[in-house]
Specification:
By secondary structure, the chain is mainly α. Helix content is 72%, strand content 0%. The chain has one domain: Cytochrome c/b562 (Four Helix Bundle (Hemerythrin (Met), subunit A)), CATH 1.20.120. The N and C termini lie far apart (58 Å).
Length: 152
């Protein structure tokens, strides 16, 4: 198979996969969205917590800090799909209703992804001060959304 044929086939497969994922999200039930959201936030905590602890002087830098930061970048890309309409009023939902229609909320996840990518680069280089600074930026993006969109 020629390279252009392979590329075309790959593009079609990606398009079909994206379309199927989009359709599946449209059919997602509110309670499933809430469970997904809670799981994603737990994953953020598990990946960022040890790095944040290091940045605050409360522990050692995890040996897999760059991988953990990479996971945060991926989670930031996936997270917006977990805030499906209808899940805001469920018991255990800790997000204010206005987040579900806010462009700033979506921008927050983009900012987290960008900050996490910088953290990954800093962790890969191994410079403690750069890692601490980059971790601080990730923390600021988290805090910004929590302060604005998390229920008290």
């Amino acid at each position: 198979m020629r390279l252009s044929t392979k590329l075309t086939a790959a593009a079609i497969a990606i398009g079909l996969t994206a379309g199927a994922a989009s359709q599946a999200l449209a059919q997602q039930k509110p309670d499933e969205a809430l469970k997904m959201r809670q799981g994603l936030m737990q994953a953020v905590k598990m990946n960022f917590g040890p790095i944040a602890g290091f940045a605050q002087g409360k522990g050692d830098l995890p040996a897999d800090a760059a991988a953990k930061a990479g996971h945060l970048t991926a989670l930031a890309k996936m997270a917006p799909m977990a805030w499906g309409k209808g899940s805001e009023a469920l018991p255990g939902a800790n997000t204010k209703a206005e987040a579900f229609a806010s462009a700033d909320f979506a921008k927050g996840w983009t900012a987290m992804g960008e900050a996490s990518a910088k953290l990954q680069a800093a962790a890969a280089s191994g410079g403690a001060e750069a890692i601490k600074a980059a971790a601080g930026e990730v923390g600021k993006t988290c805090k910004g959304c929590h302060d604005t969109f998390r229920k008290e």
